[in-house]
Amino acid sequence: MSSLKVKDLCKTYIINKIQNNVLRNVSFEINEGEMVAIMGPSGSGKSTLLYVVSGMDNLTAGKVDYFGKEMETLTPNEMSDLRLDEMGFIFQQMHMLKNLSIYDNIILPAYQSKRGKDRKEINDRARELMHKLGISEIAENDTNQVSGGQLQRACICRSLINSPKMIFADEPTGALNQQNSREVMKELNRINQEGTTVMLVTHDMKVAAKCGRIMYIEDGVIKGEIALGEFTLENSIKERERKVSNWLIEMGW
Ligand SMILES: Nc1ncnc2c1ncn2[C@@H]1O[C@H](COP(=O)(O)OP(=O)(O)OP(=O)(O)O)[C@@H](O)[C@H]1O
Ligand SMILES: [Mg+2]
User: Full-prediction pTM beyond 0.70?
Assistant: First the structure.
């Protein structure tokens, strides 16, 4: 079944009467359980694509279908509930609230949701996620009392607190060193193997090589894609990276 179906998507920004067609008739489909990377040059429209298909920004033309829901037919309230309850977000600039502890940041979306989970349920879920991501010991720390890798893992916990169907991540490893980047990818791969669909934007070939499929976007158009198959065997990574590297050369990266 399809999780995200995008048809003839256009996004135009107008600044000082100058029209910038950032996305031009983009169509693609992501199936349930897939993990898809978006690559492409700076300014090609990757972040814009992620924002528009996840309802964070409005589209200029086209259709976006999210697990059978036509997004353009939703009211702003329905859209914000959908985002809160059924989507998870991870960004490079992490939007954690500075006056709350890591724990409180993680549980916040659960209290914002109208789905009415009780306090114990939320606490259990948060503790379980923090345990899985290895950050139980920093629960009560402020956001400035943790490492970049820990903060990013806390963001992943927060994005998962409401058990989303799909996660949207914009350069989730962009601010991390190699070690932390590997850790975060390990978690995203695991979350994906547990059934959550993932769409992520990355500049890092090693990150993309751990995704099942890569789409290359240039000037607001999908120029090509490569299917790598699900990443399960750690020892296949060198071969996958070689494939991706050759393909990126073909794409003119
Ligand atoms: N809010 C906005 N208003 C006007 N123009 C915008 C806005 N956001 C992005 N743009 C323009 O849209 C184009 C694509 O930007 P986008 O951020 O999607 O690129 P990107 O592929 O994510 O680049 P990068 O790899 O540098 O993050 C750029 O020309 C940018 O200037
Ligand atoms: Mg971007």
Answer: yes
